[in-house]
Amino acid sequence: MASRCRWLPLAVIGILCCGVSASAPEWQSRYPKPEKDLCFSKGCINAASDLLNQMDQSVDPCQDFFSFACGSFVKDTPIPDDKSRVSQFSLIDDELDKNMRKQIGAPISAEDTGATVLAKKYFQSCMNKTRIEERGVKPLQNMLEKMGGWPVVEGAEWNATAFNWMDTIYQNRKEGFSHSYFFRFSVTADVRNYSQRLVDLDDASLGMGRKYLIKGFGDDDVQAYYNYMVEMAVLLGASPEKAKQEMNESLHLEIALANMMLPVEERRNSSRLYNKMTLKELSQEVPSIPWVTYSNRLLEDAGHQVSENETINVSYLTFLKNMTALLETTPKRVQANYLMWRIVRASVGSLHLAARDIRLKYYAKVYGTSEHKPRWKECLGGAMGSFSIAAGSLYVKKYFDEDAKAAALDMVKDLHKEFDAILDESTWMDEITKKRAKDKSKTIKYYIAYPDELRNDTLVTKHYEGLDISDSDLYQNNRNLNVFWLNYAYRKLREPVDKEDWRRHSRAAVVNAYYSSVENSIQFPAGILKGAFYESKRPKYLNYGAIGMVIGHEITHGFDDQGRQYNDQGELKDWWEPETNAAFKNKSQCIIDQYGNITVDRVGMQINGINTQGENIADNGGFKIAYRAYNRYQKENGREASLPGLHGFSNEQMFWLGVANPWCAVYKDDALKNLILTDPHAPSFLRINQPALNMPEFAADWKCPASARLNPQEGRCAVW
Fold it and tell me: Does pTM surpass 0.85?
């Protein structure tokens, strides 16, 4: 029997409030009484429209809650050729970009601050397609010649006797290219004495993800990377035959490096990556590199010099030993070809369309993006990434709703109380460890929306002091930026760490949230405090579900498998008693096994339960914290009005829809493969369904029968 009422366009009649029709899905019969009060404010009508447009109410929520909440979004949302996925995150990001284009893309005016002028000049240099096309690959060719030439292009003219890989690394440092192609060299905080900084040595920075490269040369995605190398060599003047031969050798060098590196699953143990020694001791372990000279050549432009008594950290000494042994048996020509290839790869984004078209073929295979982004989006992304503090200042002054900052702070405090209650109620923790956990929770710092310093134009402009940016030379601009930021980081070697430095928390124009183990802090930038995540003029059940889940997620990160390794001061110190430590590992193993046994049939790949465990623990904790906090809110403030068109759902059910709504997403197959292979997050459909499955409260609120997939009678997991 057909339904007697139907949905008409909101613009025509507003929202009609239809009850459950005779043809409604069977699951709807489980909800006998709708909420009585209805909210018809603009905020409620907009929220109802958004939810209804994304839902697929033909799906039983107890079988697949993600498809119930997001099914129409998945079916009806096309993925543009220049994107690999579309999500609520990306839609909010698109809106932010449109606003920021009006600011950074506008002509330079007398009212602009010094920082804004730099960002605008960068944007202009990137948008100057005529100039970029005229120059073609000439800027890169000039640089390769300055660096001694790319052997595959130079052929027999290349001078092997003049090549030494360390000299190339030193020159990379000065010219604005990475010096981490064979191993990483950086200045970072000492995680066991966070007031100080030290030099850190780590595994190589690769041109393609390790998870791909270890599949070997014959893998389809690795072949796409190989073709990228070959085509760029040909574009720069190499013969196709030589390019295939010599890039084959270079790629095998990179594959060898990848196989020597510590797997990401083993890097989750931070203590394993903490191995302090002096440069003198390192010289005894790895004598083929003059470590004092090497360090000083990289640090000199930042005004520092070290001696053999300098204490450093070596994340994985075995890699350094194996890497140097590999280089000793690798011909100079192969070494040079690889290093020059990495300079080429780093330069493509600054070059003309022909070069970027070659890169696009690689992106199409690995990520599924078969068209370039609109030029303004590429340029805006570069400007906002390179000038994130300037962009954040512009954003908060022009577009941020100040009321959201205070409201978000109140919500963070509210949800934090609930996490403390969960700690207090935990029966698997001994009292000593529980007290330490409470101490850590008490010291978590909040950074909401943006620091006040972002409104101080003088401070923001001073941050970029000494940076030279042209409005017509994108290639040089990118190199100048790399040198500027590297010197900025390296100058801090002898400075004490200031965890509360406002510049550390000034990336306000981003749609994301963070937890920092070493700061023991949570950060919610201004960019995420809107849209699907937060709106002040809609019912609290949606905000507690949406941004509340994110807040709970970030708090839980302080106590996931990695965050728990750091104490209340953000130092890498074990504060767990043995019995409770074993109990935590047992609980986290349940999460590892549960997610790790999931195969995503669409792409035939299994979830990596070890690599995703931290995010999965945080997701499950975020659900629980937000749910408890909203229930407490209801008890203290009473039940809320329903949304029009959704009045058949209880406040509790609306909370769950609020949780799911921001995570609606649709992926291209290649993007989904890439996510499963490399991302510490599970795909969005699992980030909703699995925590729902693990919470008996979900099954109770949706009156799920015992046979329902999201109401298992055994096998639920919970850490917090």
Answer: yes
